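Bench log, entry 3. Co-assembly request; chain sequences pasted below exactly as received.
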Amino acid sequence: MSDATAVAIELRREHEATEKTTIGFWVYLMTDCVLFASLFAVYSVLHGNTFGGPDTHQLFKLPYVLTETFALLLSSFTCGLAMLAAQKGMKREVLFWLGVTFLLGLTFLGLELHEFRGLVLQGDSWRRSGFLSSYFVLVGTHGTHITFGLIWMAIMGFYVWKKGLTASVRKRLTLLSLFWHFLDVIWIFIFTIVYLYGSFGL
Amino acid sequence: MKPVVSEHGEPRLSYGRYVAGFLGSVALTVCAYLLATHLSIDKNVLAVLLAVLAVSQFILQMFLFLHVGEERDSHLRLAAAGLMLAVVFILIFGSIWIMNNLNYRMTPQQINQYMQNQDSL
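Structure output for the full assembly:
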C-alpha cells in the first residue's frame, strides 16, 4: 500500500469521525430548538398579561434592537469567514476572524445587558408582570447561550493559537460555528416576534 | 503540522455563499424593520408579512450558513430538523390554541357554569 493511499484512508476515517460528532451536535441543537420553542410558547401566551404594567409597545426601542441584530448577524458572517480560513489552513486569518466574531458577539451581549439594566432600573424587571417574566426568560436564555458561545470561542481561539489547525481543533471549530449560526437563527424569531410584533402591539 | 483539507465529502465552504447569506439576511431584516415601522395596515396582515420574511431568512441561513443538505449524511440532519419543526409547531400553536380557549374565552361565570354542567351530567 502506497503512502498516498494510507493518507487518503486516514483522512477518510478522520472525516467520518467528524461527521458522527457533527450529527450528535446537530441533534443537540435541535433539542435546544425545542427549549426555545417552549419559551416562545410561554411568551406568546403571556405577552398580553401586563398586570397594569407597561406593554410591548411602550418598552422596546426598535432602532436599538436593530443595532443588536446587525451586530449578531455580522458576527455570524465573520464566523463563517473564520471557517473558510480554517478550511484553507490559514491560522492567522482564523484568529483574526474569530477575534472579530468575538468582539461583535460581545457588543451584542453588552447592548442586551444594557437594555436589561435600563428596564430593571425603571422598575420593569421580571417581577413586574407575566409579560416581563416571559420576556426576560426568553431573551435571557438566548443571551446565556451567547455568553457560553463567547467563552467557547475564547477557548477555541487559544487552541488555534497554541496548537494550530489540527484535525481535532478544526472539528471543534466546525461545531462552534454551527452553534453560533444557530443562535443567529433563533434571534431572527426573537427579533420578529418579540420586538417587531411588539412594536405595533400584537 | 500542515493542516489538511479532506476531499471525502466535507462540504466545500465558499465565500460567495456566505456573502449571499449575509446580504440576503440584511435585506430581509431591513425589509421587516421598515414594514413594521412605516407601514400602517391591518395588524394581522402585517404580522403574516413579517412571519413570511422571518421564515425566508430562517431558510436562507439554514442553507447558506448552516449548510443543511450539503453533507453526505444530510438526510439524517434533515430528519432531525423535520422532527424539530413538528415539535416546535405543536408546542407553540398547541399552547396558543389551548390557552386562548381556556384562559381568555371564558369568564369566571362561564367556567362555573361549565363546571356545574359537568357535575349535573
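Chain B touches chain A through 57 residues (CB under 8 Å). DSSP finds four helices and no strands in chain B.
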